[in-house]
Design brief:
The complex is a heterodimer of chains A (about 325) and B (about 525). By secondary structure, chain A is mainly alpha-helical. Chain A is built from 12 helices and 4 strands, in the order ααααβαβααααααββα. In chain A, the strands form 2 sheets. In chain A, strands 1-2 form a two-stranded antiparallel ribbon. The model of chain A has no long low-confidence stretch (mean pLDDT about 90). Chain B has a 6-stranded mixed beta sheet, with helices on both faces. Chain B has a 6-stranded mixed beta sheet with strand order 16-17-18-13-19-20, with helices on both faces. A 4-stranded antiparallel beta sheet of chain B has the order 2-1-4-5, covered by helices on one side. In chain B, strand 1 and strand 2 form a beta hairpin. Chain B folds into 2 domains: about 140 residues, P-loop containing nucleotide triphosphate hydrolases (Rossmann fold, 3-Layer(aba) Sandwich); about 250 residues, P-loop containing nucleotide triphosphate hydrolases (Rossmann fold), CATH 3.40.50. The N terminus of chain B is likely disordered. Classes of the chains: A mainly alpha (about 325), B alpha/beta (about 525).
């Protein structure tokens, strides 16, 4: 009896882990594309935030969640393009450009939201078709009663929203694109030694723009997921630092897609734990305060960024504008 | 020296490369002035010239890196505009850059196909490249493991990958920019075998170098560039190193260093079991011992990156180490409070660092400021306890500039506006004029033109003859052989062998540089 209870708790935790990891996975892969091409992207946060806002607005007015996603992608790509122009064409400082975009998104969403809806930056709640609903995979109800596999399939794998499946598909897709295609080879080369691509007679800048825009698309989907799947409207600062956590996960993952998936699931798990079990009792002696469990993902971020997890070597040319030498 | 038979041969068939009136300026600097050149098919053509003579600019124009302001390029007799590298590759031109353009964490195969893939998916391209590489390896002695990542290859093998890259793109014309700068003598020998092989298969090669010996050994024809102009094109067999040097500099140059036998005195520097670890914890110096006496030059030979830089940094007070170093029987502090450059100078050590632009000078500061760095506490530079006597430093610098023939002799110019040779003379003047007991000098003539090399060598020998000890670190074996009285060869953080210069030769030192154990003769 006790065991079943624990198992159900586990299923619940896993289910929540999956849901909460989606944003991180998409953002982390966005960062991966960008940094593998040599463009440091600290603006994941801002891109997701602006995407979340415009996806909520578009979904609300159109009544269609997919239109919300498209709007989110468009908004995020606009930001990505600004970052690209600043750091590729004008060889600006990539950190500063990213931070500036984060501030811009943070301010813009609240100002516009207030002006349009007068709800303190919130957008009106989404209902019906304007939100994504859960997809039940085939046979989910049929095998629900099987031990272990049944609930795992029915409650964790099945019954998620469309973007969840999309995010998990993007991981192998990213790997395939990076390591099995000409596009990926050139993209990685541009991030390691752009001169090698330049001397081969191929445009470094075009390759970098492509990477930055792909990052824009992925951040757009991530932001739209926040507003139209995880929540049911846009709320100010609703990304809550997930863009930075995704960057930490990217370092943790050593810029590799499948490691990125694992790293993001770990962060998702920590967040799920803090949501489900705010107060953890330790042998009945004392209970860990809720603030601590909530801070767990951020603590792990700091630990990773401080370099406690082995040596992570970033792409060699990341952060450096490419200037043809004389 | 126009040789009719050469010119005759050059005009026989359509030349592989013909440049007509190439002109290129960067701002006010005319890097190439109306340059015309013909290179016939199936030959190795050398281009020599001092730094800044315009060799690299010319080749960059040929490879589509820059666009010429005026002039035309003909490939195999056909007029071929080359607006970018893609066009150069399409015209059958390949280039092996001085600094390799390889992606270090890619495999050899990935590097070879990069930019020359056959389709959107990699698999077929990789399979094709693998087959082509096997053929090329057999044909030209270009063996290299296709699945190895670049960072795991020796420099010589990395260079082969660069050549393979060009051949994979079906280059008929191969430009090599200073290809032997990073190679051991045996690797260089292998390279020249490959080049001759390629030539015999009908490829045309252009070899840019500042080493006259290589020109003499490897090329069929040679062009000399000076100050953006092509001053001569001759058949290699009809010329001599002395003549080429004269053409390069514009006056007679002494290629050999004139020096008397050394009159050695007591031991000045004694190094025992010196060990250094870098920031990653890798041992860079693995326990080396040697000594240098007054009145002698000890040359440290070796391929770059075998611990020579670390040795200079420790002795110069830039890095810390374990072991023992004694100067004039005084034990030096290697880790503590007195292990800095200032304390070293106080002990009579002067240091001309390898990387003069990073460690020897502040490029944006003026010559007179640079000429007193490190010695700016000297009382003769102080007006009163609070203020420096800039007038005294200026006057002092002017004298130094005169004695060391630094041009232009204007102490108020920033360091970066001097040529490489004159920058080096500023550093050298500063260090030598302090009359040190021992001079540490790293790569004294790297990036320095031939005329200045002659002068710098004379200064170093003069200091030796004045009874000072000199530790010379250089990757140029010729420089080591002509200057030093004894040679120690470094390999992988150790001293692989020590020889009296007069009793050894390039071949033996080359083996030591490659890490072989050679019994002293």
């Amino acid at each position: 009896m006790e065991l079943t209870e624990t198992f159900l708790q586990l299923i619940l935790t896993l289910d929540m882990t999956v849901r909460l990891s989606v944003v991180l996975i998409l953002a982390c892969l966005a960062g991966l594309f960008s940094e593998r091409a040599g463009i440091v992207d600290i603006g994941l946060e801002g891109k997701m935030l602006i995407a979340a806002f415009f996806s909520a607005v578009a979904a609300y007015h159109s009544g269609n969640a997919w239109i919300g996603v498209l709007a989110g992608i468009a908004a995020s790509m606009t930001f990505a393009l600004i970052h690209g122009i600043a750091s590729i064409a004008y060889r600006g400082n990539q950190l500063i450009s990213g931070v500036a975009l984060n501030f811009l998104a943070s301010g813009l969403t609240v100002v516009i939201g207030n002006a349009w809806y007068k709800e303190g930056g919130r957008t009106p709640p989404l209902a019906g078709e304007a939100r994504f609903s859960e997809i039940t995979l085939p046979f989910a109800d049929l095998i629900r009663d099987l031990p272990v596999i049944g609930p795992l399939y029915a409650d964790v794998i099945s019954g998620q929203k469309a973007i969840v499946y999309l995010a998990f598909l993007v991981v192998p897709l990213t790997w395939w694109v990076l390591f099995r295609t000409r596009f990926g080879l050139r993209l990685r080369a541009v991030g390691e030694n752009p001169a090698s691509v330049d001397t081969a007679g191929i445009s470094v800048n075009r390759q970098r723009y492509a990477a930055v825009l792909i990052a824009g698309v992925l951040c757009g989907i991530a932001g739209a997921y926040l507003a139209t799947s995880q929540a049911a409207s846009f709320g100010r600062e609703m990304t809550a630092g997930r863009g930075y956590i995704a960057l930490a996960a990217l370092i943790f993952a050593k810029w590799r897609p499948f490691y990125a998936l694992m790293a993001c699931l770990l962060f998702g798990l920590l967040e799920a734990i803090s949501n489900l079990y705010p107060n953890i009792d330790v042998f009945g002696i004392f209970s860990i305060p809720v603030q601590f469990t909530q801070a767990l993902p951020y603590i792990l971020t700091v630990v990773i960024l401080a370099g406690f997890i082995g040596k992570a070597i970033p792409p060699k040319a990341s952060g450096e504008p490419y200037i043809k030498e004389r | 020296m126009a040789n009719d038979s050469v010119l005759g041969r050059l005009t026989d068939a359509a030349p592989a490369i013909e440049l007509r009136g190439i002109t290129k300026s960067f701002g006010a600097v005319e890097a190439n002035k109306n340059i015309s050149l013909k290179v016939s098919k199936g030959t190795i053509h050398g281009i020599v010239g001092e730094n800044g003579a315009g060799k690299s600019t010319l080749m960059s124009i040929l490879y589509g890196f820059y666009k010429a302001d005026a002039g035309e390029i003909f490939i195999n007799g056909r007029k071929t505009p080359i607006p970018d590298s893609q066009a150069a590759i399409a015209a059958g031109i390949g280039m092996v850059h001085q600094h390799f353009k390889l992606v270090e964490n890619f495999t050899v195969l990935e590097n070879v196909i990069l930019g020359a893939e056959d389709g959107a998916l990699l698999k077929p391209s990789l399979a094709k490249a693998r087959a082509v590489l096997v053929d090329l390896a057999r044909e030209y002695e270009l063996e290299v493991d296709p699945d190895q990542t670049i960072e795991n290859l020796s420099v010589g093998h990395q260079q082969r990958v660069e050549i393979l890259k060009a051949l994979y793109r079906q280059a008929d014309i191969l430009i090599l920019d200073e290809p032997t700068g990073v190679l051991t003598p045996s690797e260089a020998e292998h390279l020249f075998r490959i080049l001759k092989n390629l030539r015999d298969q009908g490829k045309t090669l252009i070899l840019i170098t500042h080493k006259l010996k290589e020109i003499m050994n490897a090329t069929d024809t040679v062009s000399v560039m000076r100050r953006g102009e092509m001053t001569a094109t001759v058949k290699t067999a009809d010329t001599s190193p002395g003549e080429l040097a004269e053409l390069m500099v514009g006056r007679k140059v002494l290629l050999r260093v004139d020096k008397k036998p050394a009159a050695t005195g007591k031991t000045v520097l004694e190094v025992r079991d010196l060990k250094v670890k870098d920031s990653a914890g890798v041992e860079r110096l693995k326990g080396i011992s040697f000594e240098v006496c007054a009145g002698e030059i000890l040359g440290i030979a070796g391929v770059a990156g075998n611990g020579q830089s670390e040795l200079l940094e420790v002795l110069g007070g830039i890095a810390s180490a374990s072991g023992s170093v004694r100067i004039n029987d005084h034990q030096l502090d290697l880790t503590g409070r007195y292990s800095d450059g200032q304390s070293r100078r106080a002990r009579g050590i002067s240091h001309v660092p390898e990387d003069r632009q990073r460690l020897g000078l502040i490029m944006d500061f003026m010559a007179w400021e640079n000429a007193c760095f490190g010695y700016h506490h000297d009382p003769k530079y102080q007006k009163n306890p609070l203020m420096m006597d800039n007038g005294a430093i200026l006057a002092d610098t002017e004298q130094k500039m005169q004695r060391f023939d630094i041009r232009p002799p204007n102490p108020r110019l920033p360091a970066h506006s001097f040529s490489g040779g004159n920058q080096q003379k500023i550093v050298l003047a500063r260090e030598i004029e302090r009359n040190p007991d021992i001079l540490l000098v790293g790569q004294p003539t790297r990036g320095v033109d031939i005329g200045a090399i002659e002068f710098i060598h004379q200064q170093i020998v003069a200091l030796r003859d004045a009874g000072k000890a000199i530790l010379l670190v250089s990757v140029e074996l010729d420089e080591i052989l002509s200057l030093s009285d004894r040679v120690a060869v470094m390999f992988d953080g150790r001293i692989q062998g020590e020889r009296i210069t007069a009793e050894t030769d390039e071949k033996e030192l080359g083996l030591l540089m490659a890490g072989m154990n050679v019994e002293a003769a």
